[in-house]
Amino acid sequence: MNARPKKSFGQHFLHEKRYIERIVSSIAPKESDTVVEIGPGEGALTLPLLAVAKKMTAIELDTDLIPGLQQRAATVGDLRIVHSDVLKVDFAALARELGAERLRIAGNLPYYISSPILFHCVEHAAAIQDMHFMLQKEVVDRMAAEPGSKVYGRLSVMLQLACTVTPLFTVPPGAFRPPPKVDSAVVRLVPLPPERLPQGDPAKIHAVVKAAFAMRRKTLSNTLKGLVDEASIRSLGIDPRARAETLAPADFVKLANVM
Ligand code: SAM
């Protein structure tokens, strides 16, 4: 234990027991679940999760942490550590390999790549039962934001089109070693069932959302120039003079479908 945390890997190790317990009880793992942890670090969450799940997989990029974690886990359960960048892990292939229909993913994420990890998971949402992540509180606020909110944006729309987003609780900097500069929060993401997923081309939806929020203060007719013309925007019952932040996630799907 007590390896020197590496800033470059976004290492902030959770040490406060009550938050560890709260996260584990929010996940409520069962022995029949296929739990996959992203960034196990020294095992703050891994060991209590493993104690209940008995068998789990953890994906860790920092080689130096792996032998210690393997050793500590040995008496607790069957831990398989995948040494990889999580962004290179194909969760659908991993689920097949583990013989699971869908994975339960958890992690106190490395904050320097939290958005790429979220987008990566959303791409593999069909292979995922649920996700419980610790992130910067500001990111969780953006993920769960509703139209009209100052922090409603690309992350809110893209995540809410794929999952239900439920913020669970806040965690103060002092719960980590070393303490991060910001408050953190735990969030639950549950991928939507196929019948509630947007009917449209994901690449087009991505393009519309990205363009619409690229300049928040500009109107849709401006930001979507070259993608969707004014008449088409109006034909959907959407005011071309409106700003992206006033549209519901489903409106972006409609816009993508007339692109
Ligand atoms: N779960 C531990 C805890 O709660 O104390 C550690 C959390 S720490 C915030 C983030 C962990 O993610 C570190 O162990 C770090 O080495 C690992 N990590 C960083 N980048 C990663 C990546 N691209 N893929 C997988 N793990 C990564």
From TrEMBL:
Chief place of localization: cytoplasm
Keywords on record: Cytoplasm, Methyltransferase, RNA-binding, rRNA processing, S-adenosyl-L-methionine, Transferase
SUPFAM superfamilies noted in UniProt: S-adenosyl-L-methionine-dependent methyltransferases (SSF53335)
Top-rank EC class of the record's enzyme: transferase
Compartments, record wording: Cytoplasm
One annotated GO molecular function: 16S rRNA (adenine(1518)-N(6)/adenine(1519)-N(6))-dimethyltransferase activity
Family annotation (CDD domains): AdoMet_MTases
Reaction catalysed by this enzyme: adenosine(1518)/adenosine(1519) in 16S rRNA + 4 S-adenosyl-L-methionine = N(6)-dimethyladenosine(1518)/N(6)-dimethyladenosine(1519) in 16S rRNA + 4 S-adenosyl-L-homocysteine + 4 H(+)
Domain of life: Bacteria
Signal peptide: none
Limits of the Ribosomal RNA adenine methylase transferase N-terminal domain: 19-193
Documented EC number(s): 2.1.1.182
Assigned protein family: Belongs to the class I-like SAM-binding methyltransferase superfamily. rRNA adenine N(6)-methyltransferase family. RsmA subfamily.
Entry protein name: Ribosomal RNA small subunit methyltransferase A
Organism: Luteibacter flocculans
Lineage of origin: Bacteria, Pseudomonadati, Pseudomonadota, Gammaproteobacteria, Lysobacterales
